[in-house]
Amino acid sequence: MKARWLDILFLGALLFVLVLLPLLVNNYWLRIATGALMWAGLACSWNMLGGYAGYINFGHSAFFGLGAYVTALMMVDPLGLPFAATIPAGIAVTAACAVIIGAPTLRLRGAYFAIATWAFAEVLIQFATVMEFTGGIGGLSLPPFLNERFFYFAMLMAAALTYLVTWALFEHSRFGLKVKALRDHEPAAEAMGINTSLVKLQTFVLSAVTASVFGAIFAYWVTFINPKSVFGGDITDQMVVMVLLGGLGTLWGPAIGGVALFVVNRLIWMYWGDTAFYIAILGAAIVLVVLFLPNGIAGLFAKRGRGSVSVLGKAVEKLVGAGEGDRK
Amino acid sequence: MSTSTQPLTQKPDAAVDPILVVRGLHKHFGGIKAADGVDLEVGRCEIAGLIGPNGSGKSTLFSLVSGTVAPDKGEVRFDGRDIAGQNAYKVARLGLARTFQIPALFDNMTVTENLLAAAAEGHWPGAHERAAETLALLKLEHVADNRASDLSGGQQKLLEFGRVIMRQASLILLDEVTAGVHPNIRKIILEAIAKLRERGVSFLIIEHDMEMVRSVCDRIIVMDSGRVVTSGPFEEIVRNSEVMKTYLGRPQ
Questions:
Q1: Is Cell membrane given among the entry's keywords (chain A) (predicted)?
Q2: B32, B83, B89, B206: best mutation site toward chain A, by most A Cβ within 10 Å?
C-alpha cells in the first residue's frame, strides 16, 4: 500500500511538471519534449502487442504512416477538413488494415506475422511513392498551424491516454491476463478457454490504432510528410529498440526507453549534425540489452527471481516457432 | 485386444451416465498410430485411471479430447455434446480442463496471476477469492507473488493443478500430475482430488505410479499401441497377467 501511494505521488508530480513545462522552457526544448512524448507513446503502442502478447511487429510504421497520410489527405485541398475530423477516419482505416493483416497471420505461430507486417509497411512506402493523390515521392504539405503549445498538449494528451489505457487494460484487467497468458504459453491459454486468435487480433488493432493517432498529430505538427518520413523502416526500428531498452512487456519501459533514446538522438543531432552515429547507438543498444538486460531498464527495478525466462525469450520463441512443448 | 470395444459397454463397472464418451478415435502422425481406434468412457463423479507403457497414446488422447490436436476421425462426446475437432478454447469453456505432461505455466506471470488467468474466461466474479482459496488448498500462499518460472518442480505441478481447479470444470484430465514430486506435495494433490470429487467433478488421470492408481481410481483403463486394451477395477486389472505383462514388461 505504501508503494502505491508513492506511485501516485510520483505520477502526480510528473503530470504537474509536464503540464507546466511550456511555461518553463523555450520553443526549441518544447519541440524536443513534444517529440519525446510522441516516441514514448509510439513505443508503448508497439509494446502492447510486442511486449504483452509476444508478437513482434516489424512494420509498425505502416500504421503511424496511415494515420499521418489520412490526416494529410483530408486536410489538404479539395477536402480541407478540420484536423479533429481526420483522427476518427485515420483510426477506422488503420483498424481495417490491421484486421486484414492480422486475422490470417495471427492464427499461425512463427514468423508469418512478422513478415506480413514488414511487407505491409514496404508496400505502403511504394504505394505512397508511385500514387499521384499521395503526392508521390514529394509527399504532402499540410496547412501550417504554428502553435508549439497546441502540439505539445496534443501529444501529451495522446501519450497520457495511451499509458492510461495500457495500465487499465494490460496491467489491471482480465483482458491483460489473457494477453499475457497467450504470450507465455498459447496451448495452455487455449486450454483455459482463451480464444487466443481473437485476443491477439484485438491487441493488434488497438496497437495499430494508437500509432495512427500519433501519426495524425505528427503530420499536422511537422506540416510536411513524405513516404520515407512516416512509413520508413527506421521508425519501426526505433520503437523496437526503445521498448527493448526500456523493458519489453512493462508499463513504464517504453516511456523510459522512448524518452532516453529520443533525447540522445537530438543531442547527437545538435553536436554532430545528421550522422549515422545514432544508428550505431541503436545497434549497440540492442546488443547490450539482449546480452545484459533481457528485461530492460524497467527490469532492474522490478522484483525478479532467478529470471531464467524473460518476456524477450517468449517473443523470440514465437518468432522462430519454437518452445511450448507438449503441443501434440 | 481385438475385442477391446465390447467389454466396455457391458461391464458392470462401466458408467451408466457417462460424462465423456470416446468412440473409434484415430490420429496418425506420419506412420505412427498415436490413436488407433480408441474407445472409452468416463462416468459422472468417476475417477478413471489411464495406464499404459510410454508411447501407448495416453497424452495424445488427452490432446485429442481437449481439442489441442484435431483427430483424423472418431467421436468424442462430452456431456452429451460432440466436441471432436472443436477448438481447444471452446472445449474448455464447456467445462473440460486438462493439465500438460510438461508443466505449461505462464512463466512471466506470478502464481496468483496464473490462477486468475485460468478464470479470466469463465466465472469471473469471486475469482480473486477462489484464487486465494486455491492457494491455501495447495499450500502455495508463501509463493503467491513469485513468478511461475521461479517455482520448484513440485510447486509447478501444484500450480498446474491449481489452474485446473480455477476452471471450475466438470471433467478434469490430469497428465502425470504427481510424477516426480515430493510425497508431501503428492498428498496435497490427492486430497484436492478427493475434495473436488465430492463436489461432483469427474477425473481421467494418466498415472504411472500403481500405488497412486490403486488409492484414488475407481476404475483403470489400460492403453497400448493407441488402443484401449481393457478396463476394470484395479484388482481385476492386476490379476489379469496379460495386462501386467503389457504394462510392466515394457518399462520406460
A1: yes
A2: B89
What is the SS3 assignment for B224? strand
Residue A12: inside a domain: no
- Residue A174 sits in a domain of what CATH number? 1.10.3470
Using a CB-CB cut-off of 8 Å, the residues of chain A touching B147 are: 304-305, 307, 309
Residues A66, A128: Cα–Cα separation, whole Å: 10
In contact, A280 and A274? CB cutoff 8 Å: no
Please determine, for residue A182, whether its predicted confidence score (pLDDT) is greater than 90: yes
For residue A19, being part of any structural domain is answered with no
Nearest by CB to residue B88, choosing from A177, A185, A190, is A190
Domain that holds residue A289: 24-320
- Angle (CA) A237-A295-A109 rounded to 5° is 65
Mean pLDDT of chain B: 87
| Chain B residues with CB-CB distance to A179 below 8 A | none
Instruction: Please report whether residue A239 resides in a domain.
Output: yes
- pLDDT tens digits for B120-170? 998 899 999 999 999 999 999 999 999 999 999 999 999 999 999 999 999
Query: Which residue of chain B has the CA closest to A181?
Result: B106
Asked, for residue A313, whether it belongs to a domain, the answer is: yes
Residue B29 to chain A, least CA–CA distance (Å): 10
Write down the ipTM of this complex. Answer: 0.89
CB contact under 8 A, B105 and A187: no
Does an H or E element contain A29, and which?
helix A27-50
- The number of distinct structural domains making up chain A is 1
Q: What is the pLDDT of residues A16-31, one digit of tens each?
A: 999 999 999 999 999 9
Class of domain B5-248: alpha beta
